[in-house]
Design brief:
alpha+beta; Cathepsin D, subunit A, domain 1; five-stranded mixed β-sheet; four-stranded antiparallel β-sheet
Length: 194
């Protein structure tokens, strides 16, 4: 049985027209309605050569408390990356906004496990995908690890962001090989009607 609370991690090789194209009808009927609202985004086109080997899309922007980051930059959707990454300078500014402090020179940040921190609002194709503090904080004893880390990828491939498991836990992800696109819908981690 397919666990619909987890992102799809196997590529789809046939064109998708409806939800039934992704899952057998019997499984589709078990879903709660949020999966019918999958929004798809095309893979980035050249001159970004990695778009054919990575699930690379264009990010409109990331907004944190009204401040915009990564405007028009590329993002890789990657289930092999546990957290979110982006250019170090921008991640340092975001970390300061959410109250995180750098953990040595590792590029990682610690913060209080405080629900009063702002949301991280990723905008893709005009649609906003928000991560609340409970989505991006990773508990570690009395503190939380901030689920973002600086990673500098130089041009021409970068600057580049990675939307890893922190993003994919909240947003059900479909990798559509045939149509060269990635789709997202709010994941349902609760129980669906049988």
């Amino acid at each position: 049985m397919l666990d619909i609370g987890s992102p799809i991690r196997t590529p789809i090789r046939t064109p998708i027209r409806t939800l039934e194209d992704i899952l057998p009808l019997r499984e589709t009927q078990r879903h709660c309605s949020n999966l019918s609202s999958i929004s798809f985004f095309p893979l980035a086109t050249p001159p970004h050569p990695h778009s054919a080997t990575y699930w690379e899309i264009t990010m409109d922007k990331l907004t944190v408390d009204g401040v915009e980051y990564g405007v028009g930059q590329k993002a890789i959707v990657d289930s092999g990356t546990s957290i979110l990454t982006g250019p170090s300078e921008q991640i340092a500014a975001i970390a300061a906004q959410v109250g995180a402090r750098e953990l040595g020179s590792t590029g990682e940040y610690l913060m209080k496990c405080d629900d009063n921190a702002p949301n991280l609002d990723f905008q893709l194709g005009g649609k906003t995908y928000s991560l609340a503090p409970e989505d991006y904080m990773i508990p570690d004893g009395d503190s939380c690890l901030f689920g973002m880390m600086g990673l500098d990828i130089p041009p021409p491939s970068g600057p580049l962001w990675i939307l890893g498991d922190v993003f994919m836990r909240k947003y059900y992800t479909v990798f559509d090989v045939a149509n060269e696109q990635v789709g997202f819908a709010l994941a349902n981690h609760g129980k669906c009607r049988e």
